[in-house]
């Protein structure tokens, strides 16, 4: 007897770990187990804000262990029932619903088996409430019948619904069965988000950021995992090295008493340390970077091989790169070694213990900037990256013909916290007008101006086969043109007879931007091909 009780406790504990708990659920399970049937079913209700989930569990007796196990359950989601309250036949339906909301209908109907008994019970226990429900249907008023059915559907247990009320289930309810397998079974939260469609709504929201385009991101699987933990707050985080630095993305999701909703994405950008390729302590950094590019750092099999005794041994090409990085550090060229580490080796955690401490110290002290990007701006990770690098991105709202977005420090107290500002700049048509002035091989190419509006520095081909690079200035008022090697090409787009190249050369703001753009792009050829 005691052994059976312990097995029932284990079953209840297992259900609690899935997020299913309540006095009625425990009582129903204990009552069912007393009969020791080969199988049994119980139901459980949970509210998520104005939404409701009903879970119908099916348990089987495991004859090997003489214990019950959850074989499957059907989850039924009910959409919020929003009643347009009125006064009908003298009945204030809003007050009537408030009264019905106060009643524990599950407990009230615990020992009632049919509708006739239920009506009799209510007529004796809540005569005024029953009278008011009846008066709503007098004179066969459509509004009265509709509200009466909605109230009964919303609060009464389903086994007491009449045919008209049952029809509402087809409008408000969605169901799905979940079966236990070797991976377990979805918990209450994951089933709620799946059956209700909130999981896919959340995916659509997050996909606007373009996170799935980043290496190693399986957004759906990650969300399903997080929703299965039972936590009410979790973060989606990822980090990716780009041409000019490492950018970290963090989206916090919060779900209290309802579906999870995303907070604005927080991006943190760390620019690579500045250095010039050359030969230092017999290490050619240009060749070293080419060697690092050829390695798939995210694949452990590309980094290690099995040793004589089955232990992991670093592969020779990896050891050669690490050895050269140590030589760079020994000669005082920590910046070059840190660049290689951040841009390439940071894609794995397997080699952290082999990285010289000087590199970790320099990386930890590099300046970082961060900014928040609300979903409604419809910016993906590529546009966000460009903004974090100091470039300007066009706002995508239809009414914002000439509005651009850039990041600036909010105050002197925290220069590392950037804030989005809107500026007036060129329209898409004006950009195309400027592009039409250039002898481009791909005339009227939609993708070129779209790339520029996303903040990219765009490489294009001229009619004579040469290549130039086009980018937007930081205030979004003009295009800048460069050679493929990022030498500035003065171009008089306005055909101003008084314009001279020296005007741009003497413009300190323009010179500073051109200098920064050239430095960041030339470091990794970071233009859009």
Automatic annotation (TrEMBL):
Full protein name: Uncharacterized protein
């Amino acid at each position: 007897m005691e052994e059976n009780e312990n097995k029932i406790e284990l079953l209840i504990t297992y259900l609690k770990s899935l997020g299913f708990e309540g006095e009625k659920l425990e009582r129903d399970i204990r009552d069912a187990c007393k009969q020791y049937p080969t199988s049994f079913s119980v139901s459980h209700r949970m509210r998520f804000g104005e939404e409701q989930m009903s879970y119908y569990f099916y348990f089987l007796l495991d004859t090997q262990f003489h214990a019950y196990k959850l074989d499957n359950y059907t989850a039924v989601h009910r959409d919020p029932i929003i009643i347009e309250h009125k006064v009908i036949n003298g009945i204030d339906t809003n007050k009537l619903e408030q009264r019905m909301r106060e009643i524990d209908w599950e407990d009230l109907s615990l020992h009632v088996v049919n509708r006739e008994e239920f009506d009799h019970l209510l007529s004796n226990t809540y005569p005024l409430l029953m009278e008011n429900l009846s008066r709503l249907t007098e004179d066969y008023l459509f509004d009265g019948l509709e509200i009466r059915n909605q109230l009964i559907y919303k609060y009464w247990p389903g086994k007491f619904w009449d045919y008209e009320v049952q029809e509402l289930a087809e409008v408000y309810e969605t169901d799905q069965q979940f079966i236990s397998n070797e991976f377990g079974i979805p918990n209450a939260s994951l089933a709620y988000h799946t059956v209700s469609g909130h999981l896919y709504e959340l995916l659509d929201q997050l996909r606007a950021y373009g996170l799935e385009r980043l290496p190693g991101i399986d957004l759906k699987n990650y969300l399903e995992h997080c929703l299965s933990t039972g936590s009410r707050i979790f973060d989606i985080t990822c980090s990716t090295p780009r041409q000019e630095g490492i950018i970290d993305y963090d989206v916090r999701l919060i779900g209290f008493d309802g579906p999870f909703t995303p907070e604005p994405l927080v991006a943190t950008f760390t620019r690579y340390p500045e250095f010039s390729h050359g030969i230092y302590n017999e290490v050619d950094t240009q060749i070293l970077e080419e060697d690092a590019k050829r390695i798939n750092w995210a694949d452990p099999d590309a980094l290690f091989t099995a040793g004589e005794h089955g232990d992991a041994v670093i592969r020779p090409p990896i050891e050669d790169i690490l050895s050269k990085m140590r030589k760079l550090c020994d000669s005082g060229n920590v910046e070059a070694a840190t660049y290689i580490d951040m841009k390439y080796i940071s894609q794995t955690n397997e080699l952290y213990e082999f990285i010289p401490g000087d590199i970790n110290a320099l990386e930890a002290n590099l300046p970082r900037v961060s900014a928040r990007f609300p979903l409604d701006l419809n910016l993906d990770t590529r546009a966000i990256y460009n903004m974090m690098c100091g470039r300007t991105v066009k706002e995508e709202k239809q009414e914002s013909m000439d509005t651009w977005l850039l990041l600036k420090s909010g105050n002197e107290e925290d220069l590392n916290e950037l804030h989005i500002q809107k500026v007036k700049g060129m329209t898409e048509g004006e950009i195309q007008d400027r592009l039409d002035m250039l002898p481009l091989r791909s005339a009227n190419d939609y993708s070129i101006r779209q790339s520029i509006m996303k903040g990219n520095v765009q490489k294009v081909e001229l009619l004579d086969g040469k290549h130039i690079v086009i980018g937007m200035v930081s205030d979004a008022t003009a295009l800048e043109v460069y050679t493929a090697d990022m030498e500035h090409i003065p171009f008089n787009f306005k055909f101003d007879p008084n314009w001279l190249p020296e005007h741009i050369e003497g413009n300190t703001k323009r010179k500073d931007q051109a200098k920064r753009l050239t430095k960041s792009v030339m470091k990794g050829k970071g233009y859009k091909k």
